Amino acid sequence: MAFALLRRGRSDRVRGGAGIRLALPVGAGGLARTVTDPSGQPVDGAVVTVTAVTSRKVVHKGTTDPFGLFAAALPPGRYSLMVSVDSLQPHQESVEVTAGRGAEPEPVRLTEARALELPTAGTWLFDPPHTAIRFIARHVGMANVHGRFTRFEGGIRVGADMAHSHVEVRIDASSITTGNRTRDNHLRSADFLDVANYPYIHFTSNRFVHRGGSQWQLQGSLSMHGVSRSVALDTSYLGVVNGGYGQELRCAALAKAELHREDYTLNWRTMLARGIAVVGPTVKLELDVQAMYRSHDTPTPPE
Q1: Sign of the C-alpha dihedral, residues 296, 298, 302, 303?
Q2: Which positions ≥6 away from 165 have C-beta within 8 Å?
Q3: Is 160 exposed, middle or buried (0-12, 13-18, 19+ CB in 10 A)?
Q4: How far is CA 239 from CA 90, 215, 249, 290, in A?
Q5: What would the pLDDT profile of 102-160 be if each residue is shown by its tens digit?
Q6: Residue 211: count of CB within 10 angstroms of its CB
Q7: Which helix (H) or strand (E) segment is 64 a member of?
Q8: Backbone angles phi, psi at 264, to 5 degrees
Q9: Which residues pair with 200 in a beta bridge?
Q10: What is the 3-state secondary structure (H, E, C) of 107-142?
């Protein structure tokens, strides 16, 4: 699918200001939207997905520009347009694209997302079979290295005010796995995690900050390799449900952060000079969490 070149310029069809000219390939039609938030401000980075109604094939997926603008040239036909952004209600509509017809950007004003039910105050323990701690690191000059930690424990102490809640996670550093035994042994060695001297990676939060909708930021301290640093986990809260084999009350969230190895005295430049080029200087960390509510009749998750 070839997309048209978007140009800004004067247009008699747009009153009092800059217009949009979309250079259409032969036989194509134009589709354009300007996306704003509930206060009318342009939304930069809103995800726009266009799906063909007949084939159900996604024909375009991209993001709005800093002015909230999205535009594309498409074959004629009927499409479903979806606009989504964190903490706001997604927008969906059906559109008809006509060959040879350009597109004046039509406005899309997003609304506040429906607030999810917050977890009940009390203690929630991570359920290891349904929780994953993953990381992605750039292999120097090559592809990404994907890995995870398989042994960990932790939980959430939810306060009556969610902002006063607390999260704690302890990870067995030796449980690191990337699918390559030689590399995993090297990552456990003194060149990297040095698990013999620093067997655990520990995170403890000190503040919950609500970013709007289902978005939170967990601010706290991450201790690894004998060093503690402040870390902010950008967190999407996924809600509460009665589920699982015992119909336990569960909550779920997805948290992400980017770590810099040299913050933890894992000296990337020194290792690179020695020819050790396993992973790059930054690591993306992701926690995909399910936690079970602890009560007198809730069983402790298995070891």
Answers
A1: negative
A2: 156, 157, 158, 159, 205, 208
A3: exposed
A4: 17, 11, 11, 10
A5: 778 999 999 887 777 889 999 999 999 999 999 987 665 567 888 999 999 999 999 99
A6: 13
A7: none
A8: -115, 30
A9: 172
A10: EEECCECCCCCCCCCEEEEECHHHCEEEEEEECCCC
pTM, 2 dp: 0.64
Query: Tokens 């998750």, residue?
Result: 301
| CA end-to-end span of the chain | 51
Structure tokens given for 21: 């000219």
Instruction: Give the torsion sign (CA, 112, 211, 237, 133).
Output: positive
Residue with tokens 């206060």: 39
What are the φ and ψ backbone dihedral angles of 89, each rounded to 5 degrees? -70, 130
> Nearest Cα to 194, choosing from 259, 261, 256, 136?
261
Reported as a single tens digit per residue, the pLDDT across 231-241 is 999 999 988 88
* Token pair belonging to 20: 């949009």
Rounded CA-CA distance 138/279 in Å is: 5
With a CB cutoff of 8 Å and minimum separation 6, the contacts of 56 are none
Tokens encoding 77:
């036909």
Host H or E run for residue 270: helix 268-273
Amino acid at 191: D
* pLDDT tens digits for range 260-282: 766 666 554 455 444 445 555 67
Rounded to an integer, what distance in angstroms lies between the CA atom of residue 76 and that of residue 292? 50
Whole-angstrom Cα distance, residue 83 to residue 32? 12
DSSP one-letter code for 88: B
Q: What's the CA angle centered on 195, arms 194 and 197, to 5 degrees?
A: 75
Beta strand pairing call for 106-109 and 29-36: parallel
Question: Cβ(268)–Cβ(281) under 8 Å?
Answer: yes
